[in-house]
Design brief:
The protein is α+β, with helices and mostly antiparallel strands. It has a domain at 5-125 and 245-389: Thiolase/Chalcone synthase (Peroxisomal Thiolase, Chain A, domain 1). It is 34% helix and 22% strand. It has helices at residues 27-40, 68-75, 93-107, 135-141, 148-158, 163-182, 223-228, 259-264, 289-301, 318-328, 341-344, 348-366, and strands spanning 5-11, 15-16, 52-56, 83-87, 112-120, 192-200, 203-211, 248-257, 271-280, 310-313, 370-377, 381-389. A hairpin with a 2-residue loop joins β6 (192-200) and β7 (203-211). α5 (148-158) crosses α10. The chain is globular. The mean pLDDT is 98. Bound molecules: coenzyme A (COA). Coenzyme A (COA) binds at residues 91, 148-149, 174, 218, 221, 225-226, 229, 232, 241-242, 244-247, 316, 346, 376, 378.
């Protein structure tokens, strides 16, 4: 099989649902912008030779529905020949889209393909606009549809992850993210146009401004402040707004190519997507997914935890991220070095694509040869991807 080279991987900032900079920016606009930004960073690439654009989206309906994968290619101004599809594996949708694009390249079916992700949790709420669980299946297996927050409570209770530990983990996420922002280390972010509506002469006028940072980071977070927050999902529980991932709007894109095309265009690839895998687990503790996905990935790749320089372990909730890290024996200094979703946000279907861009930027910064991104997935699954930095 051929190698799938990553030549460009970028993201928009992540901004708070309903309260942040992208609250009036449609998902198609965020995604069209970041696709064009990725193309701009890839010299000599004629968009006509892009074979396909895969778009991860966890709730592909309303403004991000109707096959946003195809719609966005046209809104972005790509040639009519460039096809597009929407991919859904909930929180892993973005990396699933990148993996599908990579497989096309590896199989020799495509020379250039894009994997990306988008989610406006402002425009389309988590759960979608009208969830319709299967009535009979629910009578015996309601856990398949359980709230993600309850699964985080289950992990905390079953595996004894204390409130104190969760809050410490959350504080650490904000501290790392605040420091990285101050040091301008999020080099994968492309300042992105955001829209707002202002009143003028008794009517609304659409104005745009550039947004260049993740706006959910709370640099002022303290352990005392976090300890005061009430549990939001279960009375007497330990999962709060402070130690959960934030609901966020954002988009990200990765351009993949064959080795021959990289040479032909005279490009310098940054990394290779070496391997990707998924696995199922109990839906009512879906947060444990990475505990199974990461070993499965490493076994396929013939590597061990110690070979991996950096991890982006999605912080859906502090309870599950911490539990998985402990169970796998990952050194904490290798995890989410610039903070995770508790501080930076978790724009569901975008997250896998966003973490790819962040992981590669961090691997370049630290000179790590191998990096792994992994996340838990609603319904009870885990996903993991292995990235190798090019010399
Ligand atoms: C937990 C959750 C319900 C909270 O939603 P929310 O109320 O909109 O959350 P916010 O971030 O606005 O925080 C609410 C309040 O908590 C407090 N708070 C949050 N983080 C804090 C922190 N680090 N320190 C101190 N206070 C904090 C603040 O008072 C904040 O209000 P403010 O924004 O007016 O300052 C939501 O973030 C959630 O559902 N997260 C999980 C998403 C999920 O399940 N994803 C899928 C995973 S598989």
């Amino acid at each position: 099989m051929r190698d799938a080279y990553i030549v460009t991987s970028v993201r928009t900032p992540g901004c708070r649902r309903a309260k942040g900079a992208f609250k009036d920016t449609r998902p198609e606009d965020m995604l069209a912008f970041i696709l064009n930004a990725a193309l701009k960073q890839t010299p000599n690439l004629d968009p006509k030779i892009i074979d396909d654009v895969m778009v991860g989206c966890a709730f592909p309906e309303a403004e991000q529905g109707l096959n946003i994968g195809r719609i966005v290619t046209q809104i972005a101004g790509l040639p009519i020949e460039v096809s597009g599809a929407t991919v859904n594996r909930f929180c892993a949708s973005g990396i699933e889209a990148i993996a599908l694009a990579a497989l096309r390249v590896m199989a020799g079916w495509s020379d250039v393909a894009i994997g990306s992700g988008v989610e406006s949790m402002t425009y389309v709420p988590m759960g979608g606009n009208m969830a319709r669980p299967h009535p009979e299946h629910c009578k015996t297996h309601a856990d398949l549809y359980v709230s993600m927050g309850i699964t985080a409570e289950n992990v905390a209770k079953r595996y004894k992850i204390s409130r104190q530990e969760q809050d410490e983990f959350a504080l650490w996420s904000h501290q790392k993210a605040a420091e990285a922002t101050a040091k301008k280390l999020f080099t994968e972010i492309v300042p992105t146009p955001a829209f707002k509506y202002v009143t003028e002469n008794g009517t609304y006028k659409k104005e745009s401004f550039l947004m260049s940072h993740d706006d959910g980071i709370r640099a002022e977070t303290t352990l005392e402040g976090l300890a005061k927050l009430r549990p939001v999902f279960a009375a007497g529980g330990s999962v709060t707004a402070g130690n959960s991932s934030q609901t966020t709007d954002g988009a990200a894109a990765t351009i993949l190519m064959s080795g021959d095309k990289v040479k032909e265009l005279g490009l310098k690839p940054v990394a290779k997507l070496k391997c990707y895998t998924t696995v199922g687990c109990r839906p009512d503790e879906m947060g444990v997914g990475p505990k199974y996905a990461i070993p499965k990935l490493l076994k396929i790749a013939g590597l061990s935890i110690k070979d991996i320089g950096l991890f982006e372990l999605n912080e859906a909730f502090a309870s599950q991220a911490l539990y998985c890290a402990k169970e796998l024996g990952i050194e904490m200094s290798k995890i989410n070095i610039h903070g995770g979703a508790i501080a930076l946000g978790h724009p569901l279907g975008c997250t896998g694509a966003k973490l790819c861009a962040t992981l590669i930027a961090n691997m370049r910064e630290r000179g790590a040869k191998y990096g792994v991104e992994s996340m838990c997935i609603g319904g009870g699954m885990g996903a993991a991807a292995l990235i190798e930095l090019c010399d």
